[in-house]
Every structure is written in structure tokens, then in C-alpha cells.
Write a structure and sequence with these properties.
By secondary structure, the protein is an alpha/beta fold. The strands form 2 sheets. Strands 3-2-1-4-9-6-10 form a 7-stranded mixed beta sheet. The protein has a 4-stranded mixed beta sheet with strand order 5-11-7-8. Helix 2 crosses helix 4. It is globular.
């Protein structure tokens, strides 16, 4: 599991999310990728500085490279996961997204939820080597974080055509119960 955080959420909220992630992960190792030092997981990679979408993927790639497992699951600091999510095994060569994800808008009172069909980074499970290959190709083509197509620099398996990089298969699955993502009034990576 590659847990990514821009360290912008409250400590109480973040600690509770991490506590639940440990429960859901069972004995699956967790590597944390953060903007500030964090005592979480078997290893913590720290990338200080301003957060951005480009950096989110670059830093996640560093975390994936540290993994020693065949598969990786990308988890974010604003989502609750269940053991069932981590039981999914993707087809070879496929980026699989858990589309069973409920979103809760936290800035609306009372908070409301939605079920929005979208393939998100925090729902991704794939082969470790596939993630590395796909993302390294993107960063080779767009090595400058100040000059890249921001609109399309997203989840692998979604934007290959407009980026002009190799296309990959994708799949979908639904965990029971679903992932719950808390959407905040600020974009943590943008």
C-alpha cells in the first residue's frame, strides 16, 4: 500500500484515517509518502515543499519503487478503506480502479454524500512494475514540472492518448463495503 498525503488535513482526522487503514491493510506493508516526516508504515518518504498534481504522481512513483510486492494499491489521506478493497487482484497489464467509492462533501452542513463514477488515483490497484513503467514514460516525456499538460496529468490508464504515451488496459471493481472519500473544500494536491 502506498499511502500519500500532502499533510494538509487536521492531525485528528489524519490519525483516524491512518488507524483505519492499518486495520483494513492487515499484514500488507504500507509505505507512506508525505510532505512532512510521518511515523507511519514500514517506510516514510518525505518530499517537503509545495504540493501539486505533478509532484503527487512523481512522489507516488518514488513510493511504488520502494515497494517489494507484485501489486500496489494507492491510498490517500482522505479515504477509508476496507479489507475487501485490498483483496482485488488486477488482470496482468491492467490498471484497476475501485469504482465503489462514496464521496462525502465535508464543507456542506449537514455533510452530504454522492456516488460519482470516476476513476481516481486513491482507488487504483495494479502491478508495481506496470505503474513504474507507465509513470516513468510520462516523466520522461514531461520532465519539467512547470511545463506539462496539467489537465491530463492524472491517473494512469485514463489520459494516455492526450499525453501521447503508451496506452494501457484498465479494469473496474467494486468493494463491499465501498471506499469512503471525504472531499474537503480545498484540493490537497493542487
Amino acid at each position: 500500500i502506498i499511502y500519500i498525503t500532502a499533510n494538509r488535513l487536521t492531525d485528528t482526522f489524519a490519525k483516524n484515517i491512518r488507524k483505519e487503514l492499518v486495520k483494513a491493510a492487515g499484514d500488507i506493508p504500507i509505505i507512506s509518502v508525505s510532505k512532512k516526516p510521518l511515523k507511519f508504515g514500514v517506510k516514510n518518504l518525505v518530499f517537503p515543499g509545495k504540493a501539486s498534481i505533478y509532484k503527487e504522481y512523481k512522489e507516488t512513483l518514488a513510493g511504488v519503487k520502494e515497494a517489494k510486492t507484485k501489486y500496489v494499491a494507492i491510498c490517500e489521506d482522505d479515504s477509508l478503506y476496507t479489507p475487501n478493497h485490498f483483496e482485488h487482484i488486477p488482470a496482468p497489464g491492467s490498471f484497476d480502479f475501485n469504482i465503489g467509492c462514496w464521496g462525502i462533501y465535508t464543507w456542506i452542513r449537514p455533510a452530504i454524500y454522492n456516488l460519482k463514477y470516476r476513476r481516481n488515483h486513491n482507488e487504483l490497484i495494479c502491478e508495481r512494475d506496470l505503474y513504474i513503467s507507465a509513470m516513468e514514460e510520462r516523466f520522461k516525456k514531461y520532465p519539467d514540472e512547470n511545463n506539462y499538460p496539467n489537465r491530463y496529468f492524472g491517473e494512469p490508464g485514463r489520459y494516455e492518448n492526450p499525453l501521447g504515451v503508451s496506452q494501457h488496459a484498465t479494469g473496474e471493481f467494486i468493494s463491499q463495503p465501498p471506499i469512503i472519500r471525504f472531499s474537503h473544500d480545498q484540493d490537497c494536491y493542487g
